[in-house]
Specification:
With 528 residues, this protein is mostly helical. The chain is 50% helix and 7% strand. It has 24 helices and twelve strands. Strands 1-2-8 form a three-stranded mixed β-sheet, covered by helices on one side. A three-stranded antiparallel β-sheet has the order 4-12-9. A two-stranded antiparallel sheet has the order 3-5. A hairpin with a 1-residue loop joins strand 10 and strand 11. Helix 10 packs parallel to helix 24, helix 11 runs antiparallel to helix 19 (302-333) and helix 19 packs across helix 22 (365-378). It is globular. Bound molecules: protoporphyrin IX containing FE. Its cofactor is heme. It comes from Periconia digitata. Heme binds at residue 471. Belongs to the cytochrome P450 family.
Amino acid sequence: MELATVGAALGAHPILAIIVTSIVYFWLLAFYRLFLHPLAHIPGPKLPIITLWYEFYYDVILGGKTLEKYPEWHKKYGPIVRINADELHCMDPAFVDTIYASASGGRKRDKSDFYLRAFPIYESCFGTADHDLHRLRRASLNPFFSRTNVREFETSIKQYINKSFDQIDSYSKTGEVCNLTLAFVSLSIDLITYVAFGWDRGYANHRDFEPNLFGPLRASMGMAHALRHIPFLYPLMSEWIPESVMLKLDPKMSEWIMFEKQIFQTVDDVFDSKQEWSKHEGHKTIFREILDGNFPAQEKSRNRLKEGAREVIGAGALTTSTAITYLSYYLHANPSTLEKLNIELETAIPDPSNLPPSTELEKLPYLNGCLHETLRFSCGIASRSPRVPHEQILYTSSTAPSTYNPTGKQYTYTIPARTPMSTSPYHMHNNPDVFPEPEKWMPERWLDADGKRHNELDIGFLPFSKGTRGCVGINFAWMVMHIEAAMFIRRFGRRMRLYETAADEMVYDHDCFEVGHASNKGIRVLVD
Ligand code: HEM
């Protein structure tokens, strides 16, 4: 059949024409992606390379299930794998510092647009794609989260923790079940809002820790894959679905809506000079830090501040509280480790009402080992978190046999500039080459033969990510976790039991940006 005849036949049948054109387009695109694309020399599974619908199916339809495929792909294709048309994933711990590079030597790292679609807060630090703009925005947060500045809050933090633990204590000998997950998330949000915005909503003052933001925060994490794959979803939800409909769909959203309104009102008050923050609250809020900074006017807009506030809550609330929740579970599920920690803390803190400064707590090796092991399990972020290097990179693997390169083959790739690359903390934290028997809770793995902390495992430890885009709240998080853990164990370490909390509420089930669990009932305990 001649081409003109085919053209005439298709012209007469528009639907057929659309179908034929789509099929031809699909095959041409597949051919390009497999054989002509700048990443065609890097191996990976064919279907995900040909089409993003693969990832859509596993992440959006099945719910965060692509991540589980990576180990199998790496075993087949080596330590660097092309996971879709444009992106690479790495399982080589030695390459992590190249992907998540610091700014030294002028190395620039953007964030990938595809990744950021899941978190549409483009005026925040977290949501900024461009390296240079991010550096500017990050400079506005660094002083606030410096080690010196966060220590200013130590006394208030202890007061908040004490108040919240009084609520947990009220369950003592009542036979009532206390939900620690809700307790810790409520405390975490009260602490962050107080420190960053100068107020709190008193979530930790309620005995049942209701209302709280656990449900809405978890739900927003659960939306991440859909938002990434369906670009119109966020505008649709935020601009077109009325608040009343949202509330019908999920009544627990009401507290979230009130919470956001209070944040936004705070920003408006700061702008309209209704509130002189430094005088009013006795400490500098994050808003005041940004407004006082020497930054261009567009970096001090209302929207920039509002998105900055959302980022601090989104990034800091569940991460810290999940870690402490994991700690309390794993200690109680492993009584011998709890006993060791009890002994270390009873020796270091003879009088629990007189807690040493956090700098002293950070030196306690077993507590520190427990927190590292906790973060290895809780991950912070489980998902891949791509960086986009501005420069071309040469990758050469080691020839020592390893889990993801069992034959010790030497892989050498030239990776073109602007290729999104990542690793996944969940897989790195479970890499047996770094963490033998990774499924086992072993705080001892972080200590040397003399019981002192060593740093040999830090190469595969990524809860806060690394480099220019790593967690800005890391000092605050370590300080809070050390104080909270020490106070919790000193107060409840010998008088708490898990109640009907199975391991499957703790272990990884799916990727919802964070570690997703099969059940969201939370850690429940009885207090003696
Ligand atoms: C255990 C607790 C925490 C963990 C595991 C954690 C983890 C992380 C990780 C992995 C990132 C990088 C995200 C990416 O790669 O895209 C990040 C960024 C960030 N975190 Fe944390 N975080 C914690 C606590 C906090 C706290 C308490 C705050 C603030 C109060 C905070 C604020 C931020 C902000 C603002 C960013 C964005 C930084 C930037 O893009 O420059 N985090 N965090």
